[in-house]
Amino acid sequence: MDKRTRNIVFYSLCVVFAVVGTLVVLYAQGWRFDLETFGFKKVGGIYLRSFPKDADIFINDKYVDKNPGLLDSGRFISDLFPKTYKLSLVKDGYIDWTEHIQVNPALVTELKYAVLIPKTSESAYKGALKSFSADNNQLIINSGNSLSIDGEKIRGENVIFQNGDSKIALAENAATRTYFVNYFNGDTPTSTILNAKFSAYGISPASIKEIIRDPNSSSGAIFGTSSKVFYMDIQTGDISTLALSSQTITEIAASPSWIAWVNFDPKSGKSKISFYNRSSNSVQNEAAIPGTAAKISFIKEDIVGILQTDGGFYTASPNSLPAQAGKPQKMADNVRDFSSSNDGTRVSLLEPQTVEIFSLGSESGYWRFRLPDAEKIERTEWYSDGNHLFVIYPGEIKFLDLNDKDIENFMTAASGNNFEYDLESNTLYFINDGILRKMVFPQ
What is the dihedral of CA 193, 194, 196, 202, to 10 degrees? Predict the structure, then answer.
């Protein structure tokens, strides 16, 4: 090979190396040639976690091979040109899931909570049924003649709260204002009437406004009369006074660290919210809110939500009161109801025409959905993942995905009434044609 030929080969190889090297670098950087536009574009991808995890995936109606993640049950779909894709999930026994997803260049669009709705439900109870509730993986049935928890008959007409692990339940007979502690950790459930305990402490059972479960104890109860807040161990019957109030107590709520209650002053036309520090055993903070409270509930450990009868919704934190910056903050008007996610990071507000969702704390996020027939919505309830809402209409319950901005996947989960969602078992209970049914969602 002469010198001229060697030079040609050498420079040709240099050109090939430069071209191939450039293409490799561009490929590594996410550039691909798009046959639709005959140009180079940076590609993106979709990271998807579906429930159930083995659902079939279709992109623009084309099947995508399953590509499970190495560290979790998620799947990554790569090399997608920037545009909107129709993403579908299909699994036998479930309603098809479809949403349109925007893919952006050099970015991965995450869908961590794609939940498919089961197509069918099954009978949960056969027999006479007056009312029911589901709590902590326990099914509570009032047949009209008896009250039972998972088939074990107990005394009372209505369960105030129960703890499945400790096998104890507090129930009442509303007509006679009789309170029962039921124990069902043996072959035959036993019970104790609490009224004598109340009377021994000078408390008339008829004066009790509300009893709630203590989130710190399986046998603890917090209750209030018109002017006092009490703590009671329902197993021993021991009662202690936590606080006194000069005004009538109307609403009570509790978190592991705080107890909050509201009373109304008719002279000022304001409600006063008080916070009891469970660590120091003292009332530490108080604040006033215009109007009368209709509902209070702890959203997080130290944030309480307050819904007023005029529709005003406020949040307040005992840790920042009574400093000026810590006064209750008004979040919205014309609110009919509110509910918070299980982890306390989000709160949904039911308004006349919309459902409005706020993120609290360090997490950022805001959603506003104008749902069909919004004025008919009775309430909303959070699904276990904190990324979906059950939306309860008269006669049906729908499932809302917070990522579904166009509301194209807003489908009916079940038809019936008396809907109850049990977070512990991830099960939806409802009555259809007089039969109590249950629908188990995928974990």
Answer: -160
Domain end (from 90, 115, 140): 115
Neighbouring residues of 169: CB distance < 8 A, sequence distance ≥ 6: 149, 154, 159, 161, 162, 163, 181, 182, 184
The pLDDT value recorded for residue 323 is: 47
In a domain, 217, yes or no: no
14-25 as b/e: b if 16+ CB within 10 A? eeeeeeeeeeee
Q: Report the domain count for the chain.
A: 3
**Three-class secondary structure of residue 198 per DSSP:** helix
Lowest mean per-residue pLDDT among 164-168, 336-340, 416-420: 164-168
DSSP assignment of 19-49: HHHHHHHHHHTTEEEETTTTEEEE-EEEEEE
Tens digits of residue pLDDT in 77-124: 887 888 899 999 999 999 999 999 998 887 888 888 999 999 999 999
Write out the residue range of the structural domain in which residue 72 sits. 43-115
Q: Looking at the domain assignment, is residue 418 inside a domain? A: yes
Spatial separation of the C-alpha atoms in residues 231 and 217, rounded to whole Å: 11
Which CATH number fits the domain that encloses residue 95?
Answer: 2.60.40.1120
pTM for this model (two decimals): 0.86
CB atoms within 10 A of CB 72: 10
Alpha carbon 265 to chain centroid, angstroms: 33
> What's the whole-number average pLDDT of the chain?
86
Residue 284 lies in a domain: no
Position 361 scores a pLDDT of 66
Tens-place pLDDT, residues 381-405: 999 999 999 999 999 999 999 999 8
Under the banding of pLDDT at 50, 70 and 90, the label for residue 59 is: very high
Contact predicate 295/304, CB 8 Å: no
Residues 442 and 346 in one domain: yes
Is-contact 49 110, C-beta < 8 A? Answer: no
For 3, other C-beta atoms within 10 Å of its C-beta total 7
d(CA 101, CA 137): 36
Cα pseudo-dihedral 191, 195, 201, 204, rounded to 10? 160
Residue 4 scores a pLDDT above 80? no
Please state the length of the chain: 443
